[in-house]
Here is the input.
Amino acid sequence: MQQKVLALKKVRNALLLAHNYQPMEIQEVADFVGDSLQLAKKSAEVSGYDMIIFAGVKFMAEMAAVLNEKTPVYIPATDAICPLAAWVSADKVRALKEEYPDAPVVVYVNTTAETKSVSDVICTSGNAVKVVSGLGVARVLFGPDKNLADYVRRQTGVELIDLEPRGHCYVHQQFDIAQITLLREEYPEAVVIVHPECPEEVQDAADIVGSTGAMVKIVAESPDETFVIATELGLVEQLQAKHPDKKIIPAYDRAVCRQMKKNSLEKVLRVLEERPKENLVEVPEEMIGHIQEILERMSQAPDARFAEASASD
Ligand code: SF4
Here is the structure.
C-alpha cells in the first residue's frame, strides 16, 4: 500500500504532509512530517503541486487551506476533529469580548477557522509565552487549553482569562506524576520532557516543558541518551525510529490521539485515487483574510517570527 501511495502521489503531483502524531505508516511515505505550525509554514511555501493531502486533524488542514489558497487541500479522514479545538466556539469568543472589551483574544492554533476568524492573535505552544508577553498588555483572553494557559501565566505574569476554564486535550490530560516518578526511579539518567498541554503538576515534575517541535530538536541535539517523553505516542515512535541509538520512553504508553489515528494509508490512497469532494477542506472566503492577518500578527511578536516558530502541537 505504501508503494501504491508513493506511485500515485507522483501521478497526481500531490504533496503529502503528515503531523508528528500520525500513524508511522503514513509518516514513512510523507513528503514532510512536523508539528502543526511547521506544516502550515510548509503549506504556505510550496507551489507547483496539484493537491496537498494533509494527514492530521481538521483545524490543521484548515490552516494549510488558508495559507495556500491556490492548491486544493484534502484531509484523508473527514471526521478527524480535535476535541480540544471544540472547546471554544466563535460565539463564546464574541460573548467574552463583550465582557472584556480591552483584553485582546489570543487563541491557541488548536481552534477552528471560525473561532480564529473572531480572535485577535494566534499562538502555538512553542511561541505562546512570547506572543502573550509581546502584546505588552496586563490582561488577555486566552484559550482553549487551560494547562497551556497555566504555563503562560506562570512564565509571563500576565492575567490570562480562560476562554474556557475546562478546556483541555484528553490525550495530554492523562499524564500524571505517579508515572513520571516511577520512570525516574527506573531510569534515573533520563531527561523528562513534558508537553505544556499536560497538567501543571506534571509540568512541575519535568526537566523541560516543551512542544513537539522542541522535543524533536532537544532529542536530536542533546548528548543525553535516555528521554522520557510526555506527549502523543506517534511522536515517541518517530523519535525512536530516528534515533535508534537513544532510548525514548513514553511517559504513558496509552497516550494515543484517536482523532489523529482516524487517518490511514487506505484513506490517503482513496483521496489520491478519487479526490472526493467531501475530503476537500474549504474555509469560507470571508474568514481567510482575517486569519491570514492574525497569523501575521503572531509573526510580529518579538522573537516569535513565523519562520522561526518551530514548535506547536
Ligand atoms: S493530541 Fe490533543 S490537541 Fe492534539 S489533535 Fe489530539 S486531541 Fe487535539
Notes: Residues 84-168+283-313 form a domain with the Rossmann fold fold (CATH 3.40.50.10800). Residues 24 and 234 are 7 Å apart (CA to CA).
